[in-house]
Write a structure and sequence with these properties.
Helix content: 25-40%
Number of strands: 5
Order of helices and strands: EEHHEEEHHH
Length: 138
């Protein structure tokens, strides 16, 4: 069973990526398309956005708005002071959060490898019977 990957933000911590995804999905559903999100939700979403490796920290976000997207789904869009807009994917941000380093005392599972013997190296390769039959008949 896979282990949960925690997501740590400045003011909030989630035990797993799935819990973070559920939190931001609920946030998105609270708003109608065209509506700007509240200041508290904007701060929360910007904390997540800072962890993304391609986030431009030098461009402050003026406003985050919910817009209708394709396939009848809504998404967040960031509006910057220079009139530049950019869609935001909270799922992409969560997936790109830095992973915690494994604990030093955690056991490392051994790699499963097939034991090779000297007979394996000398074994003839399997020849399909149809090609060998044709060679004998010719």
């Amino acid at each position: 069973m896979p282990t949960a990957i925690p997501v740590k933000l400045e003011d909030r911590e989630f035990a797993s990526q799935n819990q973070a995804r559920l939190h931001y999905s609920a946030m998105l559903r609270r708003y109608e398309p065209g509506q700007a999100i509240s200041a508290a939700d904007q701060t929360d979403l910007q904390d997540l956005l800072r962890l993304h490796p391609r986030h431009a920290a030098n461009r402050p976000i003026h406003q985050i708005q919910v817009v209708a997207g394709g396939f009848n789904r809504n998404h967040f869009v960031a509006h910057y002071a220079n009139k530049f807009t950019q869609p935001l994917s909270y799922v992409h941000c969560i997936r790109n959060c830095p992973r915690p380093a494994p604990a030093a005392d955690a056991p490392v599972p051994p790699k499963k490898t097939k034991a090779r013997t000297a007979d394996d190296a000398l074994a003839p390769s399997a020849i399909p019977s149809s090609t060998s039959d044709q060679a004998v008949q010719s």
